[in-house]
Amino acid sequence: MRGQIIGSSCGVFKILTDNGTFEGKARGTLKAKIGRLYVGDFVEFNEVDSVIESVEERKSFLKRPPISNIDQIVVILSYIKPEFSYELVFKYLTYANMNGIKASLVVTKVDLCENKADLDEIEDTFERLGIKTYFVCNKTGEGLKEVKEIFKGKITCLMGQSGVGKSSLLNAINDNYKRNIGEYSKALGRGKHETKEVILLPFEGGYIADTPGFSSLELDLYKEDLAQYFPGFDEYNKCFFSNCLHVSEKKCAIKDKVDAGLIPKKAYETYLFLSNNLLPRNQRFSK
Ligand SMILES: Nc1nc2c(ncn2[C@@H]2O[C@H](COP(=O)(O)OP(=O)(O)O)[C@@H](O)[C@H]2O)c(=O)[nH]1
Ligand SMILES: [Mg+2]
Ligand SMILES: [Zn+2]
User: Is ligand 1 within 6 A of the CB of residue 91?
Assistant: First the structure.
């Protein structure tokens, strides 16, 4: 019987089928053949032996958080606690592009914002890159109606550091989820009692994945390849020098677009920062 893995714990998978939810392991020979199974995998489940016999080809796959077959990523950051970071958003969006997955942005804890201009700047920056931003307060429910719309009928992966309010947002849109909420702790710099596993929660014809937060995300990219995946850069990536890194080269189409106001300054500054932290392809010869 066909089903989808919606949870996993120590090698035991939770599989949702048309006949209900089952628990089972992967057949040994399957593990040897294809390696790990992931939340999101569509599988053939054998109810008699309670084992997964086979896995369908994955439509998409993310390494971090480990999940397959998602349709979209919703990047979540809080306005504060932990503080909003353009660098982190651009990293997540670049990561989404590297995996060919569409992304949107949710900013939580807007109730703690005393400077609305900050929110306007966030909205404007990402709107110009074709990315919609939603502002929410999980405590009052403000802004959640719009966010719910994007979840309908899709498999969505929530992505964000711990403490930003992923679990709170899920509880606010459906109080049956009963996700554990962590205290954001300044001492630890992260939320406590955080979500430990990837889990798919059914929502209006789709699923939403609650995922453990991670504080750092390393982009597995060479410096030369960043612009190809950086949000909003690809369409303008037609510089005079074919190996242009868009830093100080002449006749750079990206820099022209920044000057013309077509690429937001924040985006370009963040590009330079991220680029600075990536190694060039030939670096192994340079030292
Ligand atoms: N003021 C405020 N606090 C929030 C909001 N959303 C979440 N929190 C708090 O942030 C902390 C971390 O929330 P949690 O949902 O566990 O974050 P997660 O680690 O991303 O799942 C908890 O103390 C929540 O009560 C919000 O919109 N406004
Ligand atoms: Mg959580
Ligand atoms: Zn250039």
Answer: no
Q: Do strands 12-17 and 2-9 pair parallel, antiparallel, or not at all (unpaired)?
A: antiparallel
C-beta 4 within 6 A of ligand 1: no
Atom of ligand 1 nearest to the CA of 138: 27
Which domains, and CATH codes, for the chain?
A: 2-58 (2.40.50.140), 62-210 (3.40.50.300), 223-286 (1.10.40.50)
Q: Is 213 in the pocket of ligand 1 (CB under 6 A)?
A: yes
Q: Which ligand is closest to the CA of 161, given by its number?
A: 1
Q: What pTM value is reported for the model?
A: 0.92
Atom of ligand 1 nearest to the CA of 172: 6
Q: Bridge partners of 56?
A: none
Structure tokens at 271: 């590009």
210 pLDDT above the threshold of 50: yes
Tokens describing residue 104: 């949107």
Q: 21 and 12 in contact (C-beta within 8 Å)?
A: no
Strands in the chain per DSSP E:
2-9, 12-17, 20-26, 42-46, 51-55, 61-62, 67-68, 72-78, 102-108, 133-135, 155-159, 184-185, 190-191, 199-203, 206-210
Residue 181 C-alpha to ligand 1 middle, in angstroms?
Answer: 7
The pairing of beta strand 61-62 with beta strand 67-68:
antiparallel
Number of H helices, E strands in the chain: 9, 15
CA of 106 to the centre of ligand 1 (A): 13
Residues with a beta carbon under 5 angstroms from ion ligand 2: 166-167, 195
Residues 72-121: tens digit of each pLDDT = 999 999 999 999 999 999 999 999 999 999 999 999 999 999 999 999 99
